[in-house]
Each structure stands twice: as C-alpha cells, then as structure tokens.
C-alpha cells in the first residue's frame, strides 16, 4: 500500500497513504544558531520580565500591567515575527515563528495575550489587508504601539462561527458601516487599540449569508465592554465581552471583500491551531522540568521519590509524549514552509502563498493542536501527582499550570470540532480527487479477506519492522474509514462518535511516524549509540499508539458493523495492530534516569 514519496514535498493528509523518508522531514535539531538565539531571547524575556511577576499578572488588578509587558516584548521584536520587513517586522518563515511560539510557551497568561495579538490579531491584516491597511496598522502592531483583539465569538455562536448576529449596515452616504452587536471571550479586549470584528452586512433588510471582517479602531466610539471575565485559568489575560453600539467604521476599513470574513476566520484558525500545538509544548517542557526537579528534591522513606518506579514511569511517559508531539509540529511546519516556497516559485504572491500553504496542511494543523493540548493536559496532571499534596497548593507551580492548561482544548476550535475536521477534510479531499484514499482503502478491504502473510520481514534496514507496523496502522484506519463511508455515505457526518475514533487513529499514526522518522534521521547523522534514549522514546510512543489505535478501532467497528462484517473487521484490526513486545518499563526508566541526572527535560 505505502509508496515512498520521491518528490521534495508531500501533500497535506498524504501521510496516511504514502511512506515518508526520514530525509524528507525537518527535525528540531536542524534549527540554525540564529534561530536558536531568537528562541533564547524569548526565554530570557520570560525569565526576566514575566516569571517573577506571574502572581501579579494573575491578580489582574489592572490591564496596564499586561499592556506594559506587551510594550517591552514589542521593543525586543517579539510582536513582529510574522510581520513583513517592509512593515516593521522580521518576516520570519513559518517554522521559525513556530519556534518563537514554543519558546514563549511558559509565559502562562502573557503567552495568551502575546499569541492573540501576533496571531489572530495581526495575521488577518498580513494576509488579507490591502497595501493601505498594511501600511497603516502593521508597523504599529509590530512594535506594540497598538495592541489587537479578535472579535469572532458571540453568546450564540461558538463552534458555529458563521451564525454570528452582529450586523453592519452601510450609511446612506456610503462612507461608513454602522456596527451593532455583542462579542464575548475577547482576549486583550481591555487594552486593545484595534479590534478585528466579524459581522454580517445587512442591505435592504437582507442579511448576508457569510461574515465580513472589519478593522475597528478603539477611537471610533460606540465600543463598550464588561469587566474582565473571572476564569478557571489564564486569569491574567484580559478577557471581555465587547459591545458595538452604532459604531461607525469607514468603508476603507472593510478587510478583504464583502462576505469573505468566514474564510478569513477559518484560514487564520488553521495557523492558530498549529501555533497553539507547539506553544503548549513549551509549557509542557517547563512543567516537566519542575516535576523532575521536585522528584529529585522530595524525599520519602529516606530516598528521593524520583528513584521510585512509579515516578519514573510518569516522567518517562511525559517526556515521550512531548518529544513525539514536538516532532509532529515541526514536521508539519516545514511542510508548510516548503509548500509556500513552491507556490511562490509558481508565481503566487507571498501572502496568498502563505495562506494556501497553511490551507494545504490544515489536517496536520488540527492534528498538532489536538495532540499538543492533550499532551500538556497529561503533563500538568501528572505533574500535580508527582508533587502530591504540594501540587494542590497555590504556592507551588503546578497549580497554575494545571488551571492554565485546560483552555487549550477549547481555544482555536474545541478538540472535538478539530477531530471531526480531520476526517471531514480528508474525505472531502478524496471526493475532489486531491487525495487517493479510496484506492488504498479498497486494497485493504481485499487484503483482510485474504490469508495473512506470516513470513518474516528479512529487511535489515533501520526500523524496518516498526515501519511495517506503521503501514499496518494506516491500513487499519483506511479499513474503518472506508467501511464507514460505504455504510453511511452522506449521513456519516451524523456519526460523530465513529469520526472521533477514526480521528484518534489518524492522530496517533501521524505522531508516531513523526517520532520514528526523527530518530532515524538522528541516527543517520549521530549514530545509534548517541540517540539511544530518543530511540527508546520513539518505540515507547509507537507501542502506546498501537494500543490506542486498537482501542479506537474496536470502538468504531462495533458502532456500525454486525455479523460477518463485524467478525472480519475485528480480525483485520487485530492483524493490523500487531507489534513485537519490548520492555517498556525499562525504556521509560532509562528516559527518566537521564532527566533526573540532569535535573531537567534534556531532549
């Protein structure tokens, strides 16, 4: 089924039907010295300006504190990473901007404010603004002179964003749109100078089907807001309800074209998803550092708790999941950079190429968002457990990390919506002929009716057995997805439980494959002995993934198959989720011991 991809780049979603070579993926070890210096600048800023003031930030007594931190970040250039150089930014490529997001990931509420400003608050203008809009707004946003907020969500429109009720009506003289409506959960609302507002234009009593986007300056008037929301976590981020009451917006402040707002929102969300997926891993690494340090310091029964197997299991698993998720993020990030370069070489403008490049890998963006946010949740949960009673105390760092983590499974589209999107986008691309899923799926359906090949794999190539496992896992996902499509046809969208199971299988396949390819690439350059621990992590993750895929597959199959079909599909699933056992306990212990020796996450 799997065909080795010979081209320089691979299409989004194609990992499910093609075998990628290790040489074709980017790994974090390949970041240049300059990129590493940028990352260190970000971490230094957090250490000096943010970490000492986390309690003060979370107290949220005034929005001025966060605004002043944003000013300082702007002075260092941390707000202009994705803004083109001609407008006062650095114009960094996609993967470098991902590295910046990760490096700022331990900033808690500050990270939320910064990412909202630089991402959803700035990128719509970078990608959709006309030259006048870019020249007017981007230099101010890049320096932090102006702060931005993004106003999409409303009380009755969350995941269904295009159902928003905020209206925009053109004045009789044709010079202004008058905005009326309510937005909620608006990050940076209390100190924003510019609001990117999504509304539906109403004309002659008829309301547009799709949203439009407007650049609304605070000075326009007609803007009021509630006090900051009281939240479970990210307490220091300024989150408001914002009201627009006869707010007059000049027609030249319409962003892009009429009715293009929903497309803007969707495309910017794609970027936000993968950026969140990597940013949370910065937070996860910080929490793992703290867990390792506490495991070394805390003594029970006369020894450090880090010497106990139960704690080593947790530390080893935390590191493994971070390592694998990080690899998936930067693999996808480089795919996006490569796609952008190819599109520009074909004559597409830089802004259009960046949007199209991200759109091509929207499936991977959703995968990394879901996986990264759930890795962070796992890490901070186990971090609290390692701290024991102290983990529940507000005087210890895990309490804040635990609370702040939870929002990431809701931000940028809930993880449930993203899981549904992963499968939906794959199937739509297949229906459009952009991705040949049906051919491989039909081949798998024939294979499960044949006698299994019990012959040993004679290949001596590196990770040949593990790659065979991955090929089989892909077959399992294709088998179930293909059968579900045949069973439900156009009604499959109503079978969300099945779609969620299939999405879980696809997520695990992509992440497990990414980790294995990273280690293979490292072995080619450093040798097997130098990356023995990384090999442990890749194999631990793969074995865990096999178990998860088997469980999700069984759940999906038993949701729709009966009789002989059920029996055959379960046999096929069993065949496709086999893996030779290894001693996972010892592997996790080796990973944990290495971190305990260095007193931090070292990978």
TrEMBL record:
InterPro entries: Acyl-CoA-dh-like_C, Acyl-CoA_DH_CS, Acyl-CoA_Oxase/DH_mid-dom, Acyl-CoA_Oxase/DH_mid-dom_sf, AcylCo_DH-like_C, AcylCo_DH/oxidase_C, AcylCoA_DH/ox_N, AcylCoA_DH/ox_N_sf. GO terms for molecular function: acyl-CoA dehydrogenase activity; flavin adenine dinucleotide binding. Residues 149-247 form the Acyl-CoA oxidase/dehydrogenase middle domain. Residues 32-145 form the Acyl-CoA dehydrogenase/oxidase N-terminal domain. Its cofactor is FAD. Residues 472-575 form the Acyl-CoA dehydrogenase-like C-terminal domain. Pfam families: Acyl-CoA-dh_C, Acyl-CoA_dh_1, Acyl-CoA_dh_M, Acyl-CoA_dh_N. PROSITE patterns: ACYL_COA_DH_1, ACYL_COA_DH_2. It comes from the Bacteria. The keyword Cell cycle does not apply. It catalyses: a 2,3-saturated acyl-CoA + A = a 2,3-dehydroacyl-CoA + AH2. Belongs to the acyl-CoA dehydrogenase family. This is Acyl-CoA dehydrogenase. It comes from Persicitalea jodogahamensis. The lineage of its organism: Bacteria, Pseudomonadati, Bacteroidota, Cytophagia, Cytophagales.
């Amino acid at each position: 089924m799997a065909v080795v991809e010979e081209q320089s780049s691979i299409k989004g979603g194609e990992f499910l039907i093609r075998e990628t070579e290790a040489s074709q993926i980017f790994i974090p070890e390949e970041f240049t010295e300059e990129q590493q210096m940028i990352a260190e600048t970000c971490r230094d800023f957090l250490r000096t300006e943010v970490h000492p003031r986390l309690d003060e930030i979370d107290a949220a007594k005034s929005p001025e504190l966060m605004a002043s931190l944003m000013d300082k970040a702007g002075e260092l250039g941390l707000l202009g990473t994705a803004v083109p150089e001609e407008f006062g930014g650095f114009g960094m490529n996609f993967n470098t901007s991902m590295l910046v997001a990760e490096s700022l990931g331990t900033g808690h509420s500050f990270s939320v404010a910064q990412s909202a400003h630089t991402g959803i608050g700035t990128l719509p203008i970078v990608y959709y603004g006309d030259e006048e809009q870019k020249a007017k707004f981007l230099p101010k946003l890049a320096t932090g002179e102006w702060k931005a907020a993004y106003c999409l969500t409303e009380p009755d429109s969350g995941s269904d964003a295009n159902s928003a009720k905020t209206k925009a009506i053109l004045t009789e003289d044709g010079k202004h749109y008058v905005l009326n409506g309510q937005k909620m959960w608006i990050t940076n609302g209390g100190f924003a100078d510019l609001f990117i507002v999504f509304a539906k234009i109403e004309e002659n009593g008829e309301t547009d089907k799709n949203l439009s986007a407007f650049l609304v300056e605070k000075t326009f008037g007609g803007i009021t807001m509630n006090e900051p929301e009281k939240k479970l976590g990210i307490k220091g981020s300024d989150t408001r309800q914002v009201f627009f009451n006869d707010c007059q917006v000049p027609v030249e402040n319409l962003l892009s074209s009429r009715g293009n707002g929903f497309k803007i929102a969707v495309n910017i969300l794609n970027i936000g998803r993968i950026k969140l997926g990597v940013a949370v891993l910065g937070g996860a690494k910080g929490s793992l550092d703290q867990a390792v340090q506490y495991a070394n310091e805390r003594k029970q029964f006369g020894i450090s708790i880090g010497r106990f197997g139960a704690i080593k299991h947790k530390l080893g698993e935390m590191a493994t999941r971070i390592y694998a998720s990080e690899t998936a993020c930067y693999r996808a990030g480089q795919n996006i950079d490569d796609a952008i370069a190819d599109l520009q070489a074909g004559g597409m403008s830089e802004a259009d190429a960046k949007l199209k490049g991200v759109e091509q890998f929207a499936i991977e963006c959703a995968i990394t968002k879901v996986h990264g946010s759930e890795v962070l949740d796992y890490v901070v949960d186990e971090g609290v457990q390692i701290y024991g009673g102290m983990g529940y105390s507000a005087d210890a760092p895990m309490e804040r990390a635990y609370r702040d983590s939870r929002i990431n499974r809701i931000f940028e589209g809930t993880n449930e919506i993203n899981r549904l999107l992963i499968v939906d986008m794959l199937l739509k691309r297949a229906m459009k002929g952009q991705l040949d899923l049906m051919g491989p799926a039909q081949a798998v359906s024939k294979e499960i009716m044949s006698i299994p090949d019990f012959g040993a794999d004679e290949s001596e190539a590196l990770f040949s057995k593990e790659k065979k496992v991955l090929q089989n896992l892909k077959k399992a996902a294709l088998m179930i997805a293909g059968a579900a499509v045949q069973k439900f046809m156009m009604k499959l969208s109503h079978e969300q439980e099945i779609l969620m199971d299939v999405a879980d299988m696809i997520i695990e396949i992509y992440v497990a494959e990414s980790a294995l390819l990273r280690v293979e690439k490292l072995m080619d350059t450093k040798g097997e002995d130098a990356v023995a621990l990384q090999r442990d992590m890749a194999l631990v993750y793969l074995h865990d993934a096999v178990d998860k895929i088997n469980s999700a597959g069984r759940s999906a199959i038993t949701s729709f198959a009966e009789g002989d079909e059920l029996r055959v599909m379960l046999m096929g699933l069993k065949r496709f989720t086999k893996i030779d056992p290894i001693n996972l306990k010892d592997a996790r212990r080796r990973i944990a011991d290495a971190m305990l020796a260095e007193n931090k996450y070292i990978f």
